[in-house]
């Protein structure tokens, strides 16, 4: 790919050069100028496609999997959300994976651990639970739970519960790209809870309060479950004292309560609320985001395409894609849960954000470079 610009590769092929390239190839080598413009683009070129997964289309298919495979045979009974242009790496957007997992009352998946970090957002049902390194958490609709990398974890639904569906989010594609993924099955196939049920939420549930002399040296949050009720109340309180972000409405990040940083080193998560009739301004940033509609209905415009969404729908915004959100209701708010790879972008000094102006121009908002 040639570009007639000083400082960019613009080498015309000749018989002599082509012969030279063949000689280099014999030694597993090549000329940088033949690929330089492709591997060093002027701006991020995402290979992901903005995509909307409608829950009404997928729900019956997810439930059907219960009759087709067991948790014991499948390991985890999950319907993957495949980005049309990232199927080769099983990614939903960028280097993030997502899927819909279903379990019925009395089922429990075997305990395991892996190098990839994981999170879950409960979509429907009751009686679900997760056990993470001995910490058992009961899960309700719209709760958000962590299963950080390297932790033993298992999922199930109590006998007295209901069929449950939740969204899984993992950084599997990233960890595989770094060639650093490990996976192990618990030697006993299960772990017994060794702490009181919901102990992490009860220990860190208060606003701005942490236990005195609490010992923790992990890179991820010691708070494993973030409840919907507390999250929604926090958004409503915040809305009373702020106009919010012009690009995201009333938005708050889920944090590690000990550090104030992201919940896990490779993935962050947030909840945002769009007030009745609110339509945000457009912007773009490095880093990929998966959204799930926690409440309400509206639409998002991503790189010029409109995606109408309602509760439980999932959609993605690829890196550097221009996007904006709108709440279609004039009387009720809409809430979007999201998870992202922004901690990686920021840790590597690669995060950059720009506002998209009405005239098609742009204005830098922030940059970590």
Describe this structure in words.
- It is a single chain.
- With 369 residues, the chain is of the alpha+beta class.
- It folds into two domains: 1-42, no CATH class; 52-367, Jelly Rolls (Sandwich).
- The chain is 17% helix and 31% strand.
- The protein has helices at 15-26, 36-39, 55-68, 71-74, 172-177, 199-204, 228-239, 342-347; strands at residues 52-53, 78-80, 97-103, 112-114, 118-124, 128-132, 135-139, 144-147, 153-157, 164-170, 183-185, 225-226, 250-253, 268-274, 283-285, 289-295, 297-302, 305-310, 314-317, 323-327, 334-340, 352-356, 362-367.
- Strand 22 (352-356) and strand 23 form a beta hairpin.
- The model has no long low-confidence stretch (mean pLDDT 95).
